[in-house]
Amino acid sequence: MKIGIIGTGNMGKILIEAFIEAGAVPPENMTITNRTLKKAYSIQSLYENIVVKETAEEVAKDADIIFLSVKPLDIHPLLMRIDHLLTKDKCVISITSPVSVKQLQSLVSCQVARIIPSITNRALSGVTLMTFGENLSAEYRDYLTEICGKISKPITISENVTRVASDIVSCGPAFFSYLLQRFIDGAVSETEITKEQATALASEMIVGMGKLLEKDLFTLPTLQEKVCVKGGVTGEGIKVLENELGDVFHHLIQKTHEKFDEDLCEVKKQFH
């Protein structure tokens, strides 16, 4: 199948690179475009068989599956422009959480899905969140699951957990890299370790922790139990986290959902 990607910003570029490097989509089967064409041609310089088109209309005409890698409020006007090219045998995919599959279905006559990627997909790992439209064929479901399975673990979610699932999968790397950076800053500030050494140690630690979880050697609770010896140093550190973190993650989820609700309202105005 031919894959089209409209928008080659951060996430669009990650999908392109991951699909190609995982062998999920051959470069010659991929057609891309971007508002700033220089970005698309920059990707073509890395994968010369990729086809760059000057307009979204050309991508929609050429591809079987079209990924819309644009901002939420840009999706409605984009679909209005290319709708006449979206025949029933094609599939449109949004990668942004505020636009639901029902909204996509209300606007176009082709098949639809939503696939929310993560920056971790660039390492051919992590999760992609999948929600399929009612009109999506079994052939497309299987194919999308297959190609996403080569760059991640595809997980199907319902509409009501879209935001929190995105918080964990897509925003999570930013949240936890921030916490890890603060951990490093604290170590450097309070001791004689250099920032470079602390960063190297912390990075290897987090990679190793991920592998422990990946291999099902420990769960998160048992991992804490194994490291946290009663009356030991780790236990004292856990006490500080318990006292000072408080409800920080409750507040974080509340804030992301507040912003999500704002985005939903703006998108709803367009689709209604």
From TrEMBL:
NCBIfam families the record matches: PRK07680.1
Keywords annotated in UniProt: Amino-acid biosynthesis, Cytoplasm, NADP, Oxidoreductase, Proline biosynthesis
Organism: Sutcliffiella tianshenii
Protein name as annotated: Pyrroline-5-carboxylate reductase
Major subcellular site: cytoplasm
Biological role: Catalyzes the reduction of 1-pyrroline-5-carboxylate (PCA) to L-proline.
Pathway(s) per entry: Amino-acid biosynthesis; L-proline biosynthesis; L-proline from L-glutamate 5-semialdehyde: step 1/1
PROSITE patterns: P5CR
UniProt subcellular location: Cytoplasm
Domain called Pyrroline-5-carboxylate reductase dimerisation: residue spans: 160-261
Recorded catalytic activity of this chain's protein: L-proline + NADP(+) = (S)-1-pyrroline-5-carboxylate + NADPH + 2 H(+); L-proline + NAD(+) = (S)-1-pyrroline-5-carboxylate + NADH + 2 H(+)
Enzyme class of the recorded protein, top EC level: oxidoreductase
PANTHER family in alphabetical order: COME OPERON PROTEIN 4, PYRROLINE-5-CARBOXYLATE REDUCTASE
SUPFAM superfamilies: 6-phosphogluconate dehydrogenase C-terminal domain-like (SSF48179), NAD(P)-binding Rossmann-fold domains (SSF51735)
EC number: 1.5.1.2
Family: Belongs to the pyrroline-5-carboxylate reductase family.
